[in-house]
Automatic annotation (TrEMBL):
Biased composition (Basic residues): 1-13
UniProt biased composition (Low complexity): 14-23
Name the UniProt record assigns to this protein: FAD-dependent oxidoreductase
Gene3D superfamilies: FAD/NAD(P)-binding domain
Region (Disordered): 1-23
PANTHER family given in the database record: AMINE OXIDASE, PROTOPORPHYRINOGEN OXIDASE
Pfam family, any one: Amino_oxidase
């Protein structure tokens, strides 16, 4: 339940209550969060929706499949741990369609952040409301000293207190996150914990990430929201998150085709959507694809869009690869280990989760075997998959020494590079939801939406907003969107920030 009374509501255009009887048909390409959000939002308004997903499962990067362990157990596998923050209003509203009490999510009591010197920060028991949350975090943190705080360049740091979208991009997009932090003169130790963890959650080294993206994230998670700094996790394997939503879509008359890639789109009086030998006609198309899928479909559809728009799609970049390594051990880890531990300055490790603490499949395997299921993440990997995997295990042995003598019963790795990169200077060319083609809209976490959202919440928000665009064009009421407040929530600091001129850009 939301506790932030200052969250912002963005009303959808009003019109008729539904499109039933108009015969409108929409193809949604991509069955990740963005595609599922768009398809659900359209189907609920009586639009006939067909969703095509390339993989055999729904959920995209938060999708799940099953794997068989050497002992014969069939268990859930995925790209791994995801944090569902309380301010993910639109994503939660989507999940609630099929799970009104959000029973599939479980709160994590804390997520300590540990650095190479063993210093640990914690989010447990902090006040919820900014700026008290940030102040309390800083005051009790072993990585901040009063001297460090006094050294901070307050004029530059003020940008973090007056985040607006797109204003913050105009101010900060030209510099990278590392340079911004240098200008803020953030203490290096605290930076690892408070900022690098955020920036690496965008799968990029801070030198490859737009400072504006970092600032928006800081606003969304820290200074702009009073939902608290803790988050929920899925207590079921991921495929069980999306199946109920697909069934709900079916109840609204929608159809889902998994294992079916969209190959090309022909514009015309109606769109012709090519999936292998089959062609589906539609009045509108939502492309809710990952970066590679979007680039490929647009490249294979020569008549689609303007030259400039096609170039912008072709120019979208993916972040470096990441590795998720999941290990099934024959013995438990120490009871004091947290469900989730984030790390800073311990490359290539970014976090460790003890999956059997919250995931039902992992928990039942651990109960039966007396073992544990541990997952390690490395984002923005610089070595090969093998090197990264080995280094992750070494880090686990250092941090959780009890795993050194454990026997590995099963070992699964996911080495992928399918997250968008938000490089410095990239924002002006980032494609938005609308396209030059009437009836064609985009959605996904790589797509621009002028609201303070990121990652899974950006995927859900762009999906709903894409559906709203189509519904508005047909005179049908859309779906209201929610977000954290759209600018810094502390008026005097906001005023101060507005008057502090941003530093002149430096060349890159
Ligand atoms: C390891 C990891 C950890 C993460 N942790 C977090 C976290 O803690 N919190 C958070 O908020 N976010 C997290 N994220 C990010 C989050 O997963 C994404 O932001 C979100 O899932 C993106 O959803 P999407 O719908 O935009 O894209 P996707 O999930 O990529 O969906 C796109 C879909 O399009 C399909 N597709 C591609 N081409 C075609 C085609 N030609 N035809 C049909 N279908 C096609 C793909 O198969 C995919 O299913 C994490 C991501 C990873 C990888």
């Amino acid at each position: 339940m939301s506790r932030d009374r200052r969250r912002a509501r963005h009303p959808a255009p009003r019109g008729r209550s539904g499109a039933t009887g108009t015969g409108r048909r929409v193809v949604v390409a991509g069955g990740g969060i963005a595609g599922l959000a768009a398809a659900t939002a359209l189907a609920e308004r009586g639009v006939a929706v067909e969703l095509f997903e390339r993989e055999s499962y729904l959920g995209g990067r938060v999708g799940g499949w099953t794997t068989t362990l050497p002992d014969g157990t069939r268990t859930g596998m995925s790209r791994g741990f995801h944090a569902f923050f309380r301010q993910y209003y639109n994503l939660r509203a989507l999940l609630r369609r099929a799970d009104p009490d959000l029973g599939v999510l479980t709160p994590v009591p804390d997520y300590p952040l540990v650095d190479a010197h063993g210093r640990t920060d914690s989010f447990e028991g902090l006040p919820r409301t900014p700026p008290w949350n940030a102040l309390a975090f800083a005051l009790r943190s072993p990585t901040f000293t009063a001297r460090d705080l006094l050294r901070v360049d307050r004029r530059t740091a003020l940008a973090l207190l007056n985040v607006r979208v797109p204003g913050t991009y105009e101010e900060l997009d030209h510099i990278d996150a590392r340079e911004f932090l240098d200008r803020v003169r953030f203490p290096p130790a605290a930076r690892h914990l408070a900022f690098d963890v955020f920036s690496r959650s965008f799968f990029a080294d801070p030198r490859q990430l737009s400072a504006a993206e970092l600032a928006v994230m800081f606003h969304l998670y820290f200074l702009g929201s009073a939902e608290g700094l803790l988050f929920d996790v899925a207590n079921e394997p991921f495929h069980r998150l999306w199946q109920p939503l697909a069934e709900q879509l079916g109840r609204h008359g929608g159809t889902v085709h998994t294992g079916t890639a969209v190959e090309a789109i022909e514009p015309g009086t109606r769109f012709r959507v090519h999936t292998g030998a089959h062609v589906t006609e539609a009045d509108a198309v939502v492309l809710a694809l990952d970066v590679r899928g979007l680039r490929e479909v647009v490249a294979a559809s020569p008549g689609l869009g303007s030259r400039d728009w096609r170039d912008r799609i072709a120019g979208l970049a993916t972040a470096p690869p990441f590795l998720v390594r999941r290990l099934w051990f024959d013995r438990p880890v120490e009871p004091a280990r947290p469900a989730f531990l984030a790390t800073g300055g311990l490359p290539p490790l970014d976090n460790i989760s003890v999956l059997d603490r919250f995931d039902s499949d992992a928990a039942s395997w651990a109960r039966r075997s007396g073992g544990s299921v541990v997952e390690l993440h490395a984002y923005a990997a610089t070595g090969s998959a093998e090197e990264t995997g080995r280094a992750l295990l070494t880090r686990l042995h250092e941090l959780y020494p009890e795993t050194r003598t454990a026997t590995t019963v099963a070992d699964r790795s996911e080495w992928r590079a399918d997250c968008p990169l938000f490089p410095p200077g990239g924002f002006p060319r980032r494609p938005g939801i609308e396209t030059p083609v009437e009836g064609l809209v985009l959605a996904g976490d790589a797509i621009r939406v002028d609201l303070p959202v990121a990652l899974m919440e950006r995927a859900a928000t762009t999906g709903l907003a894409a559906a709203n665009r189509l519904l508005a064009a047909w005179g049908v009421t859309g779906h209201d969107l929610l977000s954290v407040p759209v600018r810094g929530r502390i008026p005097p600091l906001r005023l101060l920030a507005a008057h502090a001129t941003p530093r002149a850009p430096q060349s890159h």
